[in-house]
Amino acid sequence: MIVHDRRDSSRGFFVPLVDYMLNRTSLSIVLLLLLFTVSLCFAQDAESIPDSVAAADSMLIEETFTPQPVSGVTTNDTPNDKGGSIQVSWELSPDDASGLIDHYSVERKVAGAPDSEYEIIGESTAGSSRATDNRAEDGIEYTYRIAVVSLMESVSGGMSEIVSYSSTSDGVRSSAQWFNSTRIVVLIFVVVLSLLIMYYISQAKAGKSLFIRKIAGLEAVDEAVGRATEMGRKIFFIPGTQDMENIQTIAGVTILGRVAKLAAEYECQLEVPVARSLVMIVGREIVKEAYMNAGRPDAFNEDMVRYLTDDQFGYAAAIDGMIVRDKPATIFYMGAFYAESLILAETGNYMGAIQIAGTAMPAQLPFFVAACDYTLIGEELFAASAYLSKEPKLLGSLKGQDVGKGLMLLAILVGVIIQTLGVFDFASLFEIPVD
Amino acid sequence: MRREIPLVITGVVGIIMVIQYFVPHSPFDKLDALFSDWFFILAACAIWLGALNLLKLSFIKVSKRKKDWPYAIIIVVSWFAMAGAGFYGGRGFQTPGTNFTWMYDYFYTPLSATMFALLAFFVASASYRAFRARSFLATLLLAAGFLVMMGRVLFDDLLIGVFGSLLGDARPLAYVSDIIMNYLNTAGQRAIMIGIALGTVSTALRIMLGIERSYLGGAD
């Protein structure tokens, strides 16, 4: 016998389904999914809102917030420059502190030209009240205005710019100046130092004896060359890793002339490995002249001054190899050095060479002090040539340099006292803006 | 004339360069860059003199079987390999994937880094010598160096761990380290810098006035 389920047949399809859903917790999940689907549909509708509707939204916001314009737009030709630059400044918009200002836009047009239109030449962030136009043409009169720009999110989700313009500035022209007045202190310093040096040179020429303090490192040059001669070993002279445009290299090669002359007189072998071709050319000329002046042109060989490589560590490696193989008795390091300073000096120290170093690189000085027997610190490198030559004219320049240093110390002392007492901002006299 | 012409050129160019520092107006505003360009052109041409000199000396060393001549073979082979790879690569010889860059990346860079790495060991040996307390001043140096090192390696954290509540937020070693570096060290460095500036001006003046001539070859 087949028994039909009467309940099922009488209630149809939907009733059991609803029962099923009502009786189970999955109903809540289904409802959530339904809600999610509906919200997605609404979101898609919002994205497809036509532009006209979005514009209407932003217009709506513009009506509610329009930034107040800036005031007091002033312009002036950038002082102490080579021209082509105009400085623009303004008073901040009263709304600047509200956080609703995105940026200030600097706009420029040619003054008195009816067909000229404003062009944006730069932007400044909110909170900033100055800008520099570096694209101005000298001699042309410009006027400027500042646009305060706010970015507002519209109801439709897009960003709209809301702009308020300032009044137009007075006309201004850029021009180049013939003197950079911010460097007046440097000029005074250079003139005073030059006059001092020239005065002491004239004194030295007139035969007046000048006292120059002893520099231990330079006093030891004779001893170092003599030691190499006695030991029958080479002298190495290393003029740094920089090219001839560096004043330290120039100072280094001037000392090379004195050392080469001594080496020629003592008949000692000199070797000058260099890192720059121009230094090689200059070094050869100097050594050649020194040998000729010492009356030993026959002993000169141009390969005494040899090029190794421009590369910093390649150069250090090559010289280290030469030091280890040739075991020089004396090594001079005179010029500009970087990280290779300690690599070279420690190797020389390990091989037992007497080492005299001189550099104006403050970061490398401690390394040379630790690894060398004598170190010329900063200015002593520049004084070395004059000191070794004992030439009155050169010694006069040294004396002038020392007196200049005395004046500098006096200025520092006076400055410290005045600044401490708070009488006057003495330090401001020496401020030089960085380009 | 061999001496006078270079002296006149040096003096005139030196004075022009001093003027351009104080005068921003044309044509002085462009002179610095112009002279720099000329210098780099000269240096670029001169590089061949140096490179050929290196090659010549190495060839002579190998051919005459001078002391340590095998090293010279390495120089010659490396010279031709790098120069050859550079010329073969044409204008784009430095682009990644060329023979030149391959040799640069896998030979030159590791060798250069190795030399630089040696510095760590040299610093250790030099410091050992420099910081020996042989005199009062050397002992001061040792003490200052020790305090700076302890302050820089955050030794204070360890102290706080041990003494906790006693120290609070204070970091005494870092403070002392900063005092030494910012005041004592800076004062010393500035004194040296002032001396260097004076020396530079004085040397430049000597060269411009023709008093210092030894850089032209020979003395005075």
Description:
The complex is a heterodimer of chains A (435) and B (220). Chain A is α/β, with parallel strands linked by helices and 435 residues long. Helices cover 46% and strands 18% of the residues of chain A. In chain A, the strands form three sheets. In chain A, strands 10-9-8-11-12-13 form a six-stranded parallel β-sheet, sandwiched between helices. Chain A has a four-stranded antiparallel β-sheet with strand order 4-3-6-7. A three-stranded antiparallel β-sheet of chain A has the order 1-2-5, with no helix packed on it. Chain B folds into two domains: 1-66; 131-220. Chain B contains seven helices and no strands. In chain B, helix 1 (4-22) packs across helix 2 (28-63), helix 2 crosses helix 3 (69-88) and helix 3 (69-88) packs across helix 4. Chains A and B meet through helix 5, helix 7, helix 8, helix 9 and helix 10 of A and helix 1, helix 2, helix 4 and helix 7 of B.
Entry summary:
The complex is a heterodimer of chains A (435) and B (220). By secondary structure, chain A is α/β, with parallel strands linked by helices. In chain A, the strands form three sheets. Chain A has a six-stranded parallel β-sheet with strand order 10-9-8-11-12-13, sandwiched between helices. In chain A, strands 4-3-6-7 form a four-stranded antiparallel β-sheet.
Keywords:
heterodimer; A: 435 residues; alpha/beta; Immunoglobulin-like; Rossmann fold; six-stranded parallel beta sheet; four-stranded antiparallel beta sheet; 13 helices; 46% helix; elongated; B: 220 residues; mainly alpha; 2 domains; 7 helices; 77% helix; extended
In round numbers, the mean pLDDT of chain B is 89
Large-scale geometry of chain B: extended
Tell me roughly what share of residues is in helical segments of chain A. 40-55%
Straight-line distance between termini of chain B: 15 Å
Q: Write down the Rg of chain A.
A: 40 Å
Low-confidence runs of chain B: none
**CATH architecture verdict of the domain at 216-390 in chain A:** 3-Layer(aba) Sandwich
Task: Calculate the terminal CA-CA distance of chain A, rounded to whole Å.
Answer: 108 Å
- Strand composition percent of chain A: 15-25%
* Number of helices, where a helix is a run of at least 4 consecutive DSSP H or I residues of chain B: 7
The succession of helices and strands of chain A, N to C, reads HHHHEEEEEEEHHEHEHEHEHEHEHH
The counted number of beta strands of chain B is 0
Structural class by helix and strand composition of chain B: mainly alpha
Tell me which oligomeric state these chains represent: heterodimer
Kindly name the structural category of chain A: alpha/beta
Q: What is the residue-mean pLDDT of chain A, rounded to a whole number?
A: 85
